């Protein structure tokens, strides 16, 4: 039986009772653990919870502020203001601060392109000075296009250094960016540009992916054509030349990146930003069809991503200078995510650069030209921190141990995982085959909305359990509660709740206050604690979880209509709307199903119009249609045609039942007493598209 209640799966995870104490630093190849014992963790956690003002003041003082804050936190649920009255600039802290403190020549970004020519990939090293110059020039370029503080700039690029440069340039002049993942389709650009009212798009002619060119500029052109006759018409498209593929050119709208920056000065000063000024918008899926523009602001996000980067990955900047010339100890941090996702925002750019450890960006696919590409990169650049997703780890397992075994991975110190629960088998493989049993694994639970890590081990302190994201980070008050906000006893499952504000929390959904409150601040009716204008005092992330007898958290998955495919969030409604927009489809229901590599795959149940034939060809056409509408990641793995969907008598689609069918369960001993038409289920089980 498939139990979709939040405590589903408790039994299976509880079978996992291995515990791995932290390695000593020498074993992991690091000179020290910044947080080196559970006592040190507990003491700092307690301080951060009991005296958040004192704690966060100290942390924030490690960074540069133009004007100090006069209040650390102003909290009127669900609205938080952090570092009230303070002004700063995150680009300054990422770049200029390093230059000003004498580290201008240190490496800020290491980039490796995908194509390999005569055995050699293209590699670029950008120092903080280089970055300061390039970011300044692009900031000047944006200004020359009329972009002013507060104007949203859309960025739709491949993984090239200019993507980080574009983000930092926006931050420098106070123009919030909205980065759209390069794997999304032109439709996704249209929706996001309209919602953000963005007049400028920054793109590339193309992006390299698995040896082919992804036509980014063509997608932008398509989106612009669709927007042209609306009030949201795009005024300027800036294109970086990367693949030299043929592109169309509109002389009144299109500008080359290289032409624009050529006219700009090497130094453009940083705007003084209020701590609560918007830093970026990042669209993510929710349980309705329309993506949500998650709003992050400057000060709190900066402080929190800086601190989580430092402690979760054990970043030690001063190792780098002597060590890069002397040997293997200088740190090189590599997060394999795309900057189009929050992981890339926080742990390629904004949390990393202020820590002055080089951040590595790789342009392409993990299996190009061969399945050992990632290990080749780790060996070539002596990567010390490696941060990836369980779906990638499962793919590596499938490709075979010979690939990592062919490379020297001894530089690695800390391994990270993010995006979805990591199954214990993958965890053990990661530890043994990639980490050689030497490196701690940090399984970090967080979300686009949280901005930074929330539940995570600290590599030198937390005994690890395969599959658990362990304990709350500093400042985080997490609990497992029921819908009344009542804390559940250890050893049981329930809903994950965050009971106190934290610096990098989202500040809202762009233009949709009601949805912000409904989605995140309405779940828990905590007796006697309901703030005015906000039904719940606790933040609801949408995940079910359990805490074990040691208080460790185990994430069980989403409890709403969001599915997590390869660590990326998709709303089932988004895929359903895409299917229904095809002329042959009258109704569709989409659910998650178990998938060996992706963790969760997409199963679609589709009802066709009366004259339509359910053929394999149509199945393929529908899959491609969804890819065109949303992007390749949303392609259903399974499409089943059905004359009707199982519904309750009140007309609600019985998704639980569909989930069981998609999972291939033959015995559906669920409660179907509310089912309207019993024959539907039998028919659905037969068609296994
Ligand atoms: O369900 C949780 C899952 O991913 C969701 C957040 O997705 P997104 O906003 O796209 O951000 C992904 C990268 C931070 C969460 O609600 N999730 C993320 N990390 C983990 C996880 N589930 C289990 N373990 C994790 N480490």
List the helices and strands and how they pair.
Elements (H helix, E strand, L loop, with lengths): L9 H5 L10 H4 L9 H13 L1 H9 L10 E6 L2 E6 L2 E2 L1 H14 L3 E11 L2 E8 H17 L8 E4 L4 H13 L3 E3 L6 H11 L3 E5 L2 E3 L2 E3 L1 H12 L8 E5 L13 E3 H6 L10 E2 L3 E7 L7 E6 L1 H15 L6 H7 L6 E3 L6 H9 L8 E4 L10 H9 L3 E4 L1 H10 L2 H4 L8 E5 L5 H11 L6 E4 L33 E4 L11 E6 L9 E2 L3 H8 L22 E5 L5 E6 L3 E4 L2 E4 H9 L4 E11 L3 E10 L7 H14 L8 E4 L13 H8 L16 H8 L3
Parallel strand pairs: 4-17, 6-7, 6-8, 7-14, 8-11, 11-12, 16-17, 16-18, 18-19, 19-20, 29-30
Antiparallel strand pairs: 1-2, 3-13, 4-5, 9-10, 14-15, 15-23, 21-22, 22-24, 24-25, 26-27, 28-29
Helix pairs in contact: 3-4, 5-6, 5-7, 6-7, 8-9, 15-17
Adenosine-5'-monophosphate-propyl ester (PRX) binds next to helix 13, strand 20, strand 25 and strand 27.
Short description:
The chain contains 22 helices and 30 strands.
Question: Your description of this structure?
Answer:
With 689 residues, this protein is an alpha/beta fold. Helix content is 31%, strand content 22%. It contains 22 helices and 30 strands. The strands form eight sheets. The protein has an eight-stranded mixed sheet, sandwiched between helices. A seven-stranded mixed sheet has the order 5-4-17-16-18-19-20, sandwiched between helices. Strands 21-22-24-25 form a four-stranded antiparallel sheet, with no helix packed on it. Bound molecules: adenosine-5'-monophosphate-propyl ester (PRX). Adenosine-5'-monophosphate-propyl ester binds next to helix 13, strand 20, strand 25 and strand 27.
